[in-house]
């Protein structure tokens, strides 16, 4: 995107075009001297009137000499500034970005080098040093954490006292330490302790340190992986490696430039692969490697901390937190997830239409203020601050909340944790005993396994229902000071509704959910250019993108539910449009009108991905498509030009001269849309699904074909004078067609196609290549 577009989207702070700063400084000095001179002149007039002895004349003479010298000096300085200013400012402009970039990369290199788990994977360590440019620490580092109150606690190296001497001796005798025999004993011991600390003890200190270090490592690795040549290896070293590789692979090339370009491409691929290995190692492989060295000592990442960052405002941290949370939940196993659900189920708020977000029946301290009670902007600011601070460790989840703010935080975390487990692992959590305390029978177990929803719940699927209600409430609740419009919690609810729609669907009002998502995403073209857009977005734009993604997840997970629901809403909209005079609010303000573009994009995506599923719902798909299209476009252009995706079906035909669209349904009916009158007529044409139909070039005839019925029919449509009056479509001729082989039925979208040769003759083209002509 160009800078102008970025500024228009509100994604870039507009930089004012300033002149040369040095010339501005000279201008300010000159203006100041001018004001002083004017003030001096005024004072001189007043003093002249009061001076009788000529004392001031002598003082003035001396002052004029001093003033002349000062002014001459100032003018000389201003002249020098103006002459050299441009050159110096250009130099500063050239140096500053380079300096900033260098410092940023040095800090990144230092952080990644300190928190990487050196010693666990020798191959990865070699890649980190040679390709990525990380630096292996020479001494163990003492880390620390910040508490909620802003206090810092350092973890001092007292861990060294707990290490057995045998462990150090074993490390000193290892093969890779043999090369350092010439070093003094104290340095050898320090090197052994460093290797032990970075490989294992670093991850046995604290769950908070493990969580934040892994989150930082995964987020930064993914960010650097997405860049072209992000490596900390110096430029000279990279050039030397390229030269070495070029001489090693000394082959006849088309040209030196092509050779060099290919080597750079290979080097880029190696660097990206290195960052990918680093990210995968810390996100998924690290716990198992440490458990293999020292079982049950690894401090696992905090699920609660990752859940709070599920929709972090920084996209890289958000994606890293989601990866790590799903990895940790998968590592827990079925039993661990079930226990986690039971621990957090008590904090799941009972969201209804009348109850507030934070239940007032809970005890609260008089001085505590809930973030939700602040203004929307203050609440968002406080929420952003709360995201950044490191939470203290909480070993016991069932601890009673100490304040209303903490209760709200636990409720928000519970909604996200239960939403994630329900959406991603809902089928795994089973009920071991029935409602009466007896174990379920084999038949009941099979039924539970076959149902995703029945798996997620503690007694009669209550938990799945309550979680679905909570997510729906967060999506649909109107903005209030307690629950602002665009918060992290709302965004998480939108995301989880999309991810786990198959789990929540029995407990949702699908129409309300889809309309709520469309309401948020209807300004998508203005706020978000694409779903893969990575620049920092405003909270509204971020919610808009999340809602767009959720709509697509719902549409692909339940295409039939999405299409039938949207068709029902379109029919309701058309009914209101016919009685629009009685409405107090214009229909142009309705969600279905404003979200036409978004709905059409979802339908086109479904046609592209699930063409056979859409063929079974073709009349409903056409209803939605015609609602989203501008009817004035169909006056001078064909349907294939306006909406090419719907014309991929042989069961759809458009006649520009009579302004009709015919659609063949899976139940054998034909739907004929009169675009002039905005009406649709359903005609029972065949007893089996219609395979293809087409209007004649002059629009007088319509031919339909059903391969299951082996029949082809010609239809004549007549209307009153000037196109007025009720149109009547009647069958004028029918033919029996040859049955098509079963092998040809494997691709239902290519069973047959009808092409008119002239106004009276049509050709039926089958998938096996045969052609048959029929006359009216």
From TrEMBL:
<feature type="compositionally biased region" description="Low complexity">
    <location>
        <begin position="358"/>
        <end position="384"/>
    </location>
</feature>
<dbReference type="InterPro" id="IPR015943">
    <property type="entry name" value="WD40/YVTN_repeat-like_dom_sf"/>
</dbReference>
<dbReference type="GO" id="GO:0005737">
    <property type="term" value="C:cytoplasm"/>
</dbReference>
<feature type="compositionally biased region" description="Polar residues">
    <location>
        <begin position="1"/>
        <end position="23"/>
    </location>
</feature>
<feature type="region of interest" description="Disordered">
    <location>
        <begin position="1"/>
        <end position="26"/>
    </location>
</feature>
<dbReference type="InterPro" id="IPR036322">
    <property type="entry name" value="WD40_repeat_dom_sf"/>
</dbReference>
<protein>
    <recommendedName>
        <fullName>WD repeat-containing protein 7</fullName>
    </recommendedName>
</protein>
<feature type="compositionally biased region" description="Acidic residues">
    <location>
        <begin position="385"/>
        <end position="395"/>
    </location>
</feature>
<dbReference type="InterPro" id="IPR001680">
    <property type="entry name" value="WD40_rpt"/>
</dbReference>
<feature type="region of interest" description="Disordered">
    <location>
        <begin position="358"/>
        <end position="404"/>
    </location>
</feature>
<dbReference type="InterPro" id="IPR049916">
    <property type="entry name" value="WDR72-like"/>
</dbReference>
